[in-house]
Amino acid sequence: MEKLADRIKRRRDTFENLEAGLGLIKKAAVDLDPHAEVYLFGSTASTGSKIAGDIDVLIVTEMKPDVVITHFWKMGFSDPFEFHVRTADQAAPYFRRDNPRRIQ
């Protein structure tokens, strides 16, 4: 089990290097599905990084969510990342209420 101090350090490192991590997530998503789009939304996108919060990532793809999420977990992307895998139609509410930021 991960020690609390180690977890805090890992989360701090993740938030301090968020743009690099998001870039890796974008690359991995496009490697799975060349048409995939990746967005940051939620409190991290709107108010900035907070080490106690999570990092909400919306992945728009036609692939099955379990396949995509498992791929990211195998790559080591877990807490504090929270992946939301949706089709374009399913993602529509995110764009109406969350003002997500597209990851280029």
**CATH-derived architecture:** 2-Layer Sandwich
Total number of helices: 5
For the record, the count of structural domains works out to: 1
Helix content: 40-55%
Brief descriptors of the model:
18% strand, single chain, 5 helices, Beta Polymerase, domain 2, alpha+beta, 104 residues
Model description:
This protein has 104 residues and is α+β, with helices and mostly antiparallel strands. It has one domain (4-102): Beta Polymerase, domain 2 (2-Layer Sandwich). 51% of the residues lie in helices and 18% in strands. The chain is built from 5 helices and 4 strands; from the N terminus they run H-H-E-H-E-H-E-H-E. The chain has helices spanning 4-16, 18-32, 43-47, 65-74, 88-97; strands spanning 37-41, 55-60, 81-86, 101-102. A 4-stranded mixed beta sheet has the order 3-2-1-4. Helix 4 links the parallel strand 2 and strand 3 (81-86).
Structure at a glance:
The chain has helices at residues 4-16, 18-32, 43-47, 65-74, 88-97, and strands at 37-41, 55-60, 81-86, 101-102. With 104 residues, the chain is α+β, with helices and mostly antiparallel strands. It has one domain (4-102): 2-Layer Sandwich (Beta Polymerase, domain 2).
Outline the fold blueprint.
Blueprint: H1 4-16, H2 18-32, E1 37-41, H3 43-47, E2 55-60, H4 65-74, E3 81-86, H5 88-97, E4 101-102
Parallel strand pairs: 2-3
Antiparallel strand pairs: 1-2, 1-4
